[in-house]
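Case study 2.
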Amino acid sequence: MLKKRTIAKMLLLAVLLFVLASGLAIPTCSPAKSIPRGWSGVAVSDGALFLGSMGGKLVAIDKSTQQRLWPDVPFEKKQSGGFGCAQTTAAVAIYGTPAATSELVYITGYNGKLYAVNTETGALRWVYPREDELEPIVGGPVAAGGKVYFGSSDGKLYALDAATGDRLWIFESEGKIWGTPDVNGDTLYIGSFDKKLYALNVADGSLKWQFETKGAIVATPLVYDDTVYVGSFDRYLYALSEKDGSLRWKYQANNWFWSCPLIDDGIIYAGSVDGKVYALRVENGEKVAVFDLESPISCSPVLVAGKVLVTVEAGQVYSLDADAGQKKPLANLEDKVFAPLAASDGVIYIHSAKDVLYAVDARSGATLWSLEVESE
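Prediction:
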């Protein structure tokens, strides 16, 4: 029990330190070197890998050659010099995973802006808002149906025209939005610090239904068949009716659910900050297996090469088999991991806390290549 409490306190402290570090600066007229921050995941699109570096840049890498597709795109925040100093700029922390289409890649910054960048050239197409800044953005954007959606710490969910960046509508919750939304058909799902999951009409942002838990929701919801699955900081994983948000079942862990779950062959795999992955039957929440991985889990599992793979904060990668109740170590990066995994063509891509991008073979666990993301 002491160990679990210690882990929870350490994670909460780490989150608070990340947030505080993003907004504080030491009063000085000397330019300060930016401190690596953020935990952006990787977006895979048309043979390219897009991610946010911990130096506040959008990086585009050719998946085959590991070469830059174009020079890194830096994002900076202007800040008052204070104490008679001139105005300075600082690198922007990037926590959300980019969203890529064939034409544009979208990326959010902790400076309260969403950027749209040309996937072929790296040229900035547009930025929202064009003037001023929103409250910090922690979650990533989602592009679907000609729109791009993202949430902000101001408690609002924004829908923009994906081509122009013009605002189409806003939905306002009663708490910070740190999560990444999920879009399924004509409905968008997003959680909030107000402890509610919202189902919104993508056409105009009108509310279809809402479901209230007893904790903040930062996990991305998962829609499967006619059910919405989402974890909460109240330690429960919920299964809700896609039609009206009514509760079908819930399952309690020993700590927060931070990441999006994964479903494979009728079993849902949900990782918790308590260091365990819970394998449950999708129809009723019945426990199939519990895998104790002995390190907090904030990364969503992925299904690749017929395997359910998950990475823990300490950097180990495991393959899970719920039917056999087996966990198999696949790789050990010896590097902390907070960012979500990405998978493509039998390879998983992992962005580590040391700003290193790893490509790991999902079958053998061999590291195919690794790359320091910052090019300076």
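The chain has two domains: 1-23+38-218, 225-376.
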